[in-house]
Design goal:
Blueprint: H1 28-33, H2 51-59, H3 64-71, H4 73-94, H5 97-108, H6 114-122, H7 125-165, H8 173-189, H9 195-226, H10 234-239, H11 249-255, H12 258-263, H13 269-272, H14 280-308, H15 313-317, H16 324-333, H17 335-352, H18 354-369, H19 376-380, H20 390-406, H21 410-417, H22 419-437, H23 453-471, H24 487-505, H25 514-535
Helix pairs in contact: 2-9, 2-14, 4-11, 4-14, 5-14, 5-22, 5-23, 6-7, 6-22, 7-8, 7-17, 7-18, 7-20, 7-22, 7-24, 8-20, 9-14, 9-17, 16-17, 18-20, 22-23, 22-24
């Protein structure tokens, strides 16, 4: 056996350690670059991911091309040309504080638990356990519904393009759900691969995403020109605002921001696999910032190119399919070539979606390691060969399949899938808020914002709160039970459920090793004091 592999005895947190010594199964390079032992844990993973792998981990599933094609109707309906351009650019700039804030937290404490763990570490000691328990359970609910939502999006995309080749097939909701379940099961099968092997799957999928984006931004204007169609003038593309909804501008303009908020997502995934990443305090935060910028810039290019190639915005806004960019591509590429293009992009998302399951399972295993879940020792176990928490992966697959079964009802699917949206914003809020008031409880890592740290976290907090408020608005001002936005209702229900769980089950939750955490902080402050003395 490779002596760099951790033995099964090292795979879970074995109580509170009396000494801070690393297990001999972890090599010297990992000792030098990791702080996981200092925080009270036995290292459980081989460090596999490097810069490219960490970057590909995100882009392999979070394709701006695929996301914008599905969700661009928000930009077009609520803002027209302005929505496609400034409705992407403005929020992409405003939201940049979020990845900066999370990158700083990840560099400080590169632990797979991420949001719930940082919440516990930055809270006053008396609030550490309850806040982290509640945050952890909201995280579990969010990742299960997100897995179902992403698989459903893949199923919907496949069900949209396949009938182009087989017109006799008209997929119903049950068939789409079956495709989505097949996608989830495929992701589950990837848990049998070694992490070293699956990294290449992510890189392949990421390369396909980048290639398909390049094809789109080059081929769309070329086909537009060869068909003799006029390009929209720049004055229209960047200056004409049209609102096709019944909301006033005060609500409609922020609605155009939703595409950016939903498509530029997953950038925080490197923080969920920090313990599997080499030089995590540097590589993980760098990957967070790089992937955000890559998705934001690629998305802006896609949106601007699309806007120039739309000649009739009014008819585009009332596209009966609800997928105006799908229609645009079919018109320019032709039905068969357009369908082939989307088949490639969707297949790439299906292939890369296994990264979503991996990062989600790493979070669940971290929460289980801290005793936050039933059967914690089993769920926290990392398989020695695959280097993955396979039992957590299995539970998440089962949970996503169960959510998809509920989704056979259109009303139920709207309610359940809506949780993934607001809960994702809610998860980021506590650690960012607590960082502002943490004082000496926060220890800066190699990636830190210095004097700008608190202002950036404050701005990130404001953007999160603002978007959570806007996410609560229904799509139409005059709503019905079918069109009502259940985001805030479902999220509030999960929050109440987590709070009740704390008061009924929380007494069994040990939480973080606060003594190890405090010792780590004291070592840092002592080094800082020694450094200032030597400089003096």
């Amino acid at each position: 056996m490779d002596n760099h592999n951790p033995s099964s005895a090292n795979l879970v947190k074995t109580g509170r350690k009396q000494s801070m010594t690393l297990e001999p199964s972890i090599n010297n390079e990992e000792i030098a670059i990791g702080i996981i032992d200092d925080l009270g844990y036995h290292p459980s993973y081989r460090r596999v991911f490097e810069g490219i792998g960490s970057f590909a981990l995100v882009l392999s599933v979070a394709s701006p091309m695929g996301g914008i094609a599905i969700i661009s109707s928000y930009q077009i309906v609520y803002g027209g040309y302005w929505g496609l351009t400034w409705g992407w650019i403005i929020p992409a700039v405003l939201f940049f504080a979020q990845p900066l804030a999370i990158a700083e937290l990840c560099s400080s404490m590169p632990v797979n638990g991420a949001n719930y763990w940082w919440t516990a570490a930055l809270s006053p000691p008396s609030l550490s356990r309850p806040l982290s328990f509640i945050s952890g359970w909201i995280t579990i609910a969010q990742i299960v519904t997100s897995l179902a939502s992403v698989s459903f999006a893949c199923g919907t995309s496949l069900a949209t393009v396949v009938p182009i080749f087989h017109p006799e097939w008209e997929p119903n909701n049950a068939q789409i759900m079956s495709i989505a379940m097949g996608v989830v099961l495929f992701w589950g099968l990837t848990s049998f691969l070694r992490m070293e092997s699956i990294t290449w799957v992510f890189i392949l999928s990421c390369s396909t995403v980048l290639l398909s984006t390049a094809i789109y931004v080059i081929a769309l204007p070329i086909t537009h020109s060869t068909q003799g169609l006029p390009f929209a003038p720049a004055a229209k593309v960047f200056g004409e605002y049209t609102n096709s909804s019944d909301w006033g501008r005060a609500v409609a303009v922020p609605m155009t921001f939703f595409s950016t908020a939903w498509v530029v997502t997953g950038w925080n995934a490197p923080s969920y696999v920090a313990e599997e990443t080499k030089n995590a305090r540097v590589v993980s935060p760098r990957s967070i910032v790089q992937t955000y910028l890559a998705m934001a810039i690629l998305g802006a290019v896609i949106c601007i190119i699309s806007a120039f190639c739309i000649t009739d915005m009014e008819s585009t806004a009332i596209d009966p399919s609800g997928l105006p960019l799908y229609t645009l591509i079919f018109q320019h590429f032709g039905p068969k070539l357009g369908a082939s293009f989307f088949l490639v992009t969707t297949s790439s998302a299906v292939l890369g979606g296994s990264s979503f399951l991996l990062t989600s399972a790493s979070q669940m295993a971290a929460f289980a390691r801290d005793g936050g879940l039933p059967f914690s020792k089993t769920l926290a176990r990392v398989h020695e060969k695959t280097n993955m928490p396979i039992y957590s992966q299995a539970v998440l697959v089962a949970g996503a399949l169960l959510v998809l079964l509920f989704g056979l009802s259109s009303m139920a699917s709207t309610i359940i899938f809506s949780l993934a949206v607001v809960a994702n914003l809610l998860m980021l809020t506590p650690p960012i808020l607590l960082r502002i008031f943490a004082q000496d409880r926060f220890v800066p890592g190699p990636f830190n914002l210095g004097r700008y740290s608190k202002p950036v976290h404050i701005w990130a907090l404001l953007t999160l709160v603002y978007m959570m408020i806007m996410e609560a608005f229904p799509a139409m001002k005059h709503w019905t039970m079918e069109t009502f936005n259940y985001n805030w209702v479902v999220t509030l229900g999960v929050l109440i459920f987590a709070i009740i769980g704390w008061f009924t089950l929380g007494h069994n939750y040990p939480g973080l090793d606060l003594s190890a955490l405090e010792a780590w902080r004291e070592q840092y402050h002592e080094r800082q004091g020694d450094g200032e003395t030597s400089r003096g």
